[in-house]
Amino acid sequence: MQIQELYNLYLAHPTICTDTRKLSKGCLFFALKGDNFNGNKFASQALQEGAAYAIVDEPDALISEACILVPDVLETLQELARYHKEQLNIPIIAIVGSNGKTTTKELIGAVLQAQYHILSTPGNFNNHIGLPLTMLMLTKAHQIGIIEMGANHQKENALLCHIAKPTHGLVTNNGKDHLEGFGSLEGVIKSNAELYEYMRLHGGVVFVNSADKVLMEMSEGLEKRVLYQQNSSELVQPERVFLPATSLQPNIVFNLLGTQINSWLSGDYNFDNILAAVSIGLHFGLNQSQIKAGIESYEPKNLRSQSITKENNRIFLDAYNANPSSMEASIRNFLAMPGEGKILCLGDMFELGPYEAEEHQNMVDYCKSLHLTDVFLVGAAFLKTNSAYKKFEQTSDLEAYFQQNPPNGKFVFLKGSRSMKMESLIDFIS
To answer: What is the fold, at CATH topology level, of the domain defined by 88-297?
Structure first.
């Protein structure tokens, strides 16, 4: 079946499903395959439960005329998303980077929705499967798409750009994320630069933190470049958004063209995320009142930069994920926050490959250099570090410790990679 024919079916049945447990009647079921699953085996069930068609790539799955055989289901899904984008003449803002992608995406969405009907990446739909699903949620009613791209190996950002066809781009930063796949920090930079290369070839607009020398070098030569950065004085021009912060703790406060804006976020790294959203808002014609409303409406959630009061203790929860760069920045921000009796609970950082032992020891040494004493380390990698800090093999072990030794009057920091589920400690910090 040609892509145009499949697209006509999509227009008639614009809901895409890849999981029979979340099936919608009248949908197109794409029988994706992975290491531990094969959607072809569920094509019959999908049709029985109401799917209009099943797109499969194994001849044995052709049980009726409602089954459409393609060479590769995933590639077909990606091609359908790319073709769909070509039919929609709307700006697409792509966000890549090591840290802060989701927060930046949410801030941009909060700002732009004051004037535009937007679609932004839902949840973690930001990889080679999630991104095409996001793109296929776009309709003619949408005016701007805000697309987060999450890569963990070379050429993946290039693939995601090929699918989403962004007109605007932002690299938040370069850090030590997914080193197992990227191989090194240089590999991370090379991967993030794939967005700039796409924008270079297609005349796109990029938003660049000009305080970041590496980002400036990566984006050098791009004709349409909007710069933003934290600055000592205010400068707001079409291609320059330089703003000082009145305060970074306990919340970020700053002025934009005479308007004071009070954010729920804290820390200099979050001010960078805010400035990205401000520069994009101004670029798309929003005024300072609209930008103020958007920034002030965004409240941290989903395990990112959340402040929680729990009976006798306070908690700073930043446990959606972790890598060496984000953990160090988050610790630095936490220590700058007002409060006494600070405790750090750090969970293992995953996907570091051969750098795992080195980076976990570096993190312990970083805590030592700050003369921190109340640090709790959780996970197999932290367990192997050379440290006098209390260590626990699993998060449940630290839960048991807190049951026997409950914190009282403390300010507790929680961070670790997603699988560590550091947020489970909240119930034991009472």
So the answer is: UDP-N-acetylmuramoyl-L-alanine:D-glutamate ligase (3.40.1190)
